[in-house]
């Protein structure tokens, strides 16, 4: 389904990526091995989820790909080129939408362009931003301020802001973690639809196994720290994903497999 790029290079390739943090404590320093030999490829249009116990190194992996922190070993390539720092082709989104409260929703969406290329470029991109807001069901709120939006609407606005620069790769760290369960499920459906319509390539860190399965073409399951990828599970469910799939046998087999990898077969808990 996801044909390799003609030049043979995947969109993203991690090869034996490691991260050691140095932590200073009471005059002494110790080393934390947060990510260990992390290797995987992502092809264009693939959505991947990263799951693992709290503190296993998921955010660390995302931050290294984003170029926010350097890897201490291994290599990260975007479209065959080594990544050495922040890259304009990568869009990032965190748990809190962090919209500027004094700017309208439209002005918030245009902010990354204004910062990178100036006000003229932001003005020229208004139509593109409006199309994104339309797609996210927010056209009516383009001129509202963030305080007038619900949590789910604010997250959708943040997704539009991430997409407005047309990044090649999206990195999302617990993007829907602060939302109630009902809104979160709706956001999963919306997000999948938006990604599909734009052939987006994305990695989503999540604590919800269900969310991981629902969104992804591949789920990467990480071990406790130092986080290694213990298994890549290809999710062979049709797209678009729909809410009723969550109760299907196939879906629940995936959830169970991931759950057992994370908890060694313990019962209960769909969140990690
Ligand atoms: N800047 C830092 N300096 C020192 N140690 C850090 C730093 N950032 C993270 N760590 C440590 O690295 C390990 C991995 O952290 P990370 O945030 O990547 O985990 P995570 O899997 O995303 O956790 P969670 O699911 O709880 O958000 C943790 O033990 C954490 O304490």
From TrEMBL:
Top-level lineage group: Bacteria
Keywords in alphabetical order: ATP-binding, Nucleotide-binding, Transport
MF-aspect GO terms: ATP binding; ATP hydrolysis activity
One of the Pfam families matching this protein, by short name: ABC_tran
CDD domains reported for this sequence: ABC_NrtD_SsuB_transporters (cd03293)
SMART domains associated with the record: AAA
InterPro entries: AAA+_ATPase, ABC_transporter-like_ATP-bd, ABC_transporter-like_CS, ABC_transporter_ATP-bind, P-loop_NTPase
Residue span(s) of domain ABC transporter: 12-249
Keyword Transferase: no
Family designation: Belongs to the ABC transporter superfamily.
Protein's UniProt name: ABC transporter ATP-binding protein
Organism: Stappia taiwanensis
């Amino acid at each position: 389904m996801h044909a390799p790029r003609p030049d043979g290079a995947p969109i993203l390739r991690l090869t034996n990526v490691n991260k050691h943090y140095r932590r200073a404590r009471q005059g002494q320093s110790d080393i934390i091995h947060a990510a260990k030999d992390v290797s995987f490829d992502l092809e264009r249009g693939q959505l991947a989820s990263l799951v693992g116990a709290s503190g296993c190194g998921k955010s660390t992996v995302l931050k290294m790909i984003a170029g926010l922190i350097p890897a201490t070993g291994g290599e990260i390539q975007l479209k065959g080129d080594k990544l050495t720092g922040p890259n304009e082709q990568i869009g990032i989104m965190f748990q809190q939408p962090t919209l500027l409260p004094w700017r309208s929703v439209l002005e918030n969406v245009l902010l990354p362009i204004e910062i990178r290329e100036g006000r003229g470029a932001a003005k020229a991109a208004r139509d593109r931003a409006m199309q994104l807001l339309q797609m996210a069901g927010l056209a009516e709120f383009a001129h509202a301020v963030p305080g007038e939006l619900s949590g789910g609407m604010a997250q959708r606005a943040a997704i539009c802001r991430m997409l407005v620069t047309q990044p090649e790769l999206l990195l999302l760290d617990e993007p829907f973690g602060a939302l109630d369960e009902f809104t979160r499920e709706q956001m999963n459906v919306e997000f999948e639809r938006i990604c599909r319509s734009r052939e987006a390539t994305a990695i989503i860190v999540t604590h919800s196994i269900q969310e991981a399965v629902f969104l992804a073409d591949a789920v990467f399951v990480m071990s406790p720290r130092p986080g290694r990828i213990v298994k890549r599970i290809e999710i062979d469910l049709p797209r678009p994903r729909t809410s009723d799939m969550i109760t299907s046998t196939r879906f629940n087999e995936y959830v169970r497999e991931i759950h057992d990898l994370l908890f060694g077969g313990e019962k209960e808990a769909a969140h990690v």
